[in-house]
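WARN retry 2 of 3 for item q-0093 after timeout on previous attempt; input resubmitted unchanged.
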Amino acid sequence: MAVIISVDTAADSTTGDETYAFAVETEDNATHTSATTVLSRTIAAASLTAGSIHTLPIPPEVTFDRYMRLYATLAGTTPSVTVTAWLAPLRDVQNFKAYPNNYNV
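OK item q-0093 returned
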């Protein structure tokens, strides 16, 4: 299994000090008051371009509690990014293709 992160709107790197860290956390209650981080990754702003896909493979030995979440920590002067994330079998990652929406909101 893997957490897949698809970038909808590119990361802001205007001042160059922006950082983007993502963590997969698990917890036995929905409030995540004492969540445990099972894996994390910092992704460079230059790599977070619109349409890019980032994979966080979940090691097979990791056990999860009832709830899990993807937690993003953005830091710096003007950090900003829009992502969509989901859980999928690792073998399905190479087959994923994002298509632009044909509507405006």
